[in-house]
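Write out the 3D structure for:
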Amino acid sequence: MGATRIIAVRHGETAWNVDTRLQGQLDIDLNDRGRWQAARLAQALADESIAAIYASDLSRARATAQAIADRCGGPAAGTVHLHTGLRERGFGRFEGQTYAQIAAGWPEEARRWRQRDPHYAPEGGETLVQLRDRVAHTVNTLASQHLGQQIVLVAHGGVMDALYRLATQQDIGAPRTWELGNAAINRLLWTPDALTLVGWSDTRHLDDAALDETST
């Protein structure tokens, strides 16, 4: 009873994912494919025992979480708890720009971003260190309330990346070698001592591979 099972999910696809436009903490809705992914995800999780569903308060995560809540039974049925700690990394002045526009407009900053400088933040945004610490604090806070139960966390690509690194003890500046697909099912186990990876990027509930962006 000293562990919490976590299903961690990146939101469904948005038009800005398709356009490779950085969303950050801007509030962008799901597109038609994203809503379809959310429905398929909800169907896949309908028979899971879920004590609570937590989501970023941004629309794309909130809508994905609500689709799950509307299909599940038990104490989590119909209810999504919003938590700002699950928001995407703040990208400041990069938000709303395509990757190409960022590279052209701020080449040196774009290099530091692409090379995962842990202490670099776009003007008005967060560093990777700040993101990791925020995600770690949030998952510890939420999971500690549900020992012996299973919860769902619906968030964003940057949050999923931070969770993977925390669970595998990989450095935040190391290159990514894992997928962050939209609406993929990722499973983790939390105890007061550690976060452990159980399974990652299960997309069997989707017809084809979900779009995998560097971050949202």
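The beta strands are 4-10, 52-55, 81-82, 150-155, 185-191, 194-202.
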